Amino acid sequence: MKNLKDILYKVSLEHIVGNTDVSVNAIQFDSRKIQQGDCFVAQKGVTVNGHLFIEKAISLGATSIVCEDLPVQLVDAVTYVVVKDSNSALAIMASNFFDVPSSKLKLIGVTGTNGKTTIASLLYQLFKKAGHKVGLLSTVKILVNTQEYTTTHTTPDSVTINSYLKQMVDAGVTYCFMEVSSHGIHQKRTHGLCFEGGVFTNLSHDHLDYHNSFAAYRDVKKAFFDSLPASAFALVNVDDKNGNVMLQNTKASKKTYALKTLADYKGRVLEKSMSGTLLTVNGVEVWSKLIGTFNAYNLLAIVGVADTCGLEHMEVLRLVSELESVSGRFQYAISKSGIIAIVDYAHTPDALKNVLETITDIKQSTEKIITVVGCGGDRDKSKRPKMAMIASQLSNQAIFTSDNPRTEDAQTIIDEMEIGVAKENIGKTLAIVDRKQAIKTACKLSESGDVILIAGKGHENYQEINGERFHFDDLEVVTACFNQLNK
After folding, report:
1. Residues 436 and 415 in one domain
2. Which residue from 169, 302, 336, 439 puts its CA 20 to 30 A from 159's CA?
3. Final residue belonging to a domain, choices 291, 320, 349
4. pLDDT tens digit string along 261-298?
5. Taken in order 137, 382, 239, 329, is the CA torsion positive or negative?
6. How many CA atoms lie within 13 A of 167 on its CB side?
C-alpha cells in the first residue's frame, strides 16, 4: 500500500479535485480488476476509452481516479487527478508504487524488428553462465532469476513490468534484459524506466497496421534511444541503414556492430553449417551453435553488451560457444531418413527471407526446401503478398496455410498472400488452410536431405481462431508426422 501523493511524484499534473494524502491499495487500468482502495487510471486506448469505465471503477471501490478528462459528475469521497497523458502517468506511477525498481538493477532494452527475443534470451543465458543473477522480460517468457512465468505481450503493461522488476530486485537480480516493442514504446509502457543501455537490431516491414507508415514505425524506435540518459549506452547494428538514425539524438554513449562495415564490434562469418557458425569478432575466432548470418548479428550484439557491461572479453567469447538456441528460433528436428524440419518465428518478410537464405547457404544443391507459412489475422495486411512472394521465390515448394487467423477468415488471408506470387512461381505453391494438414503434406513431399521450414509461429504453442486458443505446437506436429510416416 502506498500514498497517492507519493506515487504521483514526477507525473505531469493538470488539475486535482480532492485529497492526494490517501492510501492506494493497487494501481489498476482495467476497471474489472478494481478492489476497495485501488487507484484507477483511465487510458484512451486504441480500441477502448478507459474514461467510459470511471463510474464502474468507483462502484467497485476505486477511491482515486487518474484521467485526462474530468467526469461531469464527481463523487465526493473520490480523489480525481487530471493528467496530460494517462499512459505516461501510469508508467511513472507504477514505477513509484514499486519503489522505482529499474534504478536498482541494470536494465537493458533490446528493440528492432527481428532478433529481439534471441538477443535478450541469449544475454540472459550468458550473464547467468558468468555467475550473475539475471532477469528476462521477453516474448517467450519472463524469468526472475530461475523462476519462470508465462507472458502474453512482447512488452507487458507498465504495472506488470514494474511488478516483475520489483520481484527481481527482491531476488537479488543484478541484470535484466528486456524486449522493447514499438507498441510498448508508443504506448509509453517503458516510460519512466531507468535503462542502463539499449540495443537496436534492424528495421523492416512490420506493424504498419498500427504505425501507418514505415517512417512512423522507425521514429517510434528512435524515441527509445532519444530517451536514454548520458549514463547509458546505445549499441546499434550499422549494417542496417537505420542504425545511425537511432544514434542521431541520443545522449547515451554510442557503440556499433556490423558484418559489412567498420564498427566497434566487427564480425566476419567464416563457416556456416547445420551444426553452427564459425565467425570472427574483432579478429578473434569463435564457434557458436547458432545457425546463419542473422544469428551472427545477434552474437555481435551479445558480445557488445557483455563487453560494455564489463565482462571479461575472452571469457565472453568462450561463453558464446556454450549458448543454446532460443525456443522457436531456428529449432530443428531430423527424421529417421534425414529430412530436416526447421521451426522458426519468422513472421515478417525480412525474417522469412533471412531464414530461407540461410537454409539455401547450408543445404546441398540437390536438396529441396519446402516452406509452410501463413500470416496472422487482424494484423498488417500489406506484408501478406510479400511473405508469399519470398516463400515462393526461395523455396522449391511453398505451402500457404493458416497462422493465427484470429477473427479473420483463414482462406481470405491465404488469398491475399497469393496475390504476391509471380506467375513463374505459381506452380510451386499449394494452399492448405488446415495448418496440421499443411505440415503433414510437407512431410509427405519431402525426401532424405530435404529441408522443411515451418515459419511464423515459432515458440507459440497455440492457434488463435475466432477468439479461442487451441493447443498447436509446430515442432510437436512435425515430429509426430515424421514418426507416423516412418520417414
Report:
1. yes
2. 302
3. 320
4. 999 999 999 998 888 999 999 999 999 999 999 999 99
5. positive
6. 17
